[in-house]
Amino acid sequence: MQGQLAVAYGALIHQMWSGKHSVVVPRELKSLIGKFEPRFNGYNQQDSQELLAFLLDGLHEDLNLITNKPYIEEKDADGRPDSVVADEAWEAYQQRNDSIIVDNMHGQLKSTVVCPECSKVSIKFDPFCFLSVPLPSTERSTRSRENKVQISECFDLFTREEELGEHDLWYCPQCKEHRQASKKLDLWKLPDTLIVHLKRFQYTRWFREKLDFPVEFPVRGFDLTDRVLEKSGQQYVYDLIAISDHSGGLGGGHYTAIGLNKGKWYNFNDSYASDLGDLPDVKSSRQAYMLFYQRRGTNGYNSPRKCNGNGPATNGTPPSNGATGEAASTNGAMDVGTSADM
Ligand SMILES: [Zn+2]
């Protein structure tokens, strides 16, 4: 996308935070996204998680300091300690991906697959940007619409061992056969800005539905330390900073957002923004679709990036003149981050 998405996004953020407008229409960004990804053209209802995934991936690639991605062969864990294999996988990932998005928003999942025939264990560490957690739905006939789900139940389900489906077989390198293996995911390390995607939309071959029962989640002090396998003595405690809400059903729903600014919560609904006052420490919501958490003690962007100063940079252009949005040059990796004063 040759930096176009980052420039348009930077300009929008600059415009939004200029204090000059009560309403900003993101026309340019919207049409640019549609140009690169035609399914986002027009005015059909879209999935906010899919849109955000596209946007974050596009921003990452626009801001990626690595221009020539080296080919890196994936190595087998081969019984080596998890921490060694995880670090190796992360370093390999960073040799191909180096951006403010990776620094702040990407974490690492551990996946363990076991062959039911020969018991071969395959362990991999994969980066992620969204933690897409399932909602308990198998017992939906007994679960009343009023029955609250705790977000911890969603995390339990996410890390539960499961048998792969018949159409989702795993190729066992030892048996040299496709097997219906068991698979388990674990959180290895979490990013400073954590996006939890509640999988409310269920699509199967036979039906589509939206699970709209309330989910209860912490607004302050979401402690995930015990769920993170990387034991570095660090605490993983998060505070909520925003919510993407979806109300209504599958076809004709409506998206709104809740966001925190300078300690106050606001609701954003098309061209209206309203003050929500304070939120309780724990919130229950039927609409919450994506939850945005910031790790306590971090501020939304990590220490200055290489390109913001003495930078090396693989693409070598010096930083542009000042941090104004208009100056978002093709190299303008920092303009997005610094003007997003959230
Ligand atoms: Zn096997």
Automatic annotation (TrEMBL):
It comes from the Eukaryota. It is an enzyme of class 3 (hydrolase). Residues 311-332 have a biased composition (Polar residues). It catalyses: Thiol-dependent hydrolysis of ester, thioester, amide, peptide and isopeptide bonds formed by the C-terminal Gly of ubiquitin (a 76-residue protein attached to proteins as an intracellular targeting signal). Residues 301-342 are annotated as: Disordered. Keywords: Hydrolase, Protease, Thiol protease, Ubl conjugation pathway. Residues 1-296 form the USP domain. Its EC number is 3.4.19.12. GO terms for molecular function: cysteine-type deubiquitinase activity. One of its GO terms (biological process) is protein deubiquitination. Belongs to the peptidase C19 family. This is ubiquitinyl hydrolase 1. It comes from Steinernema glaseri.
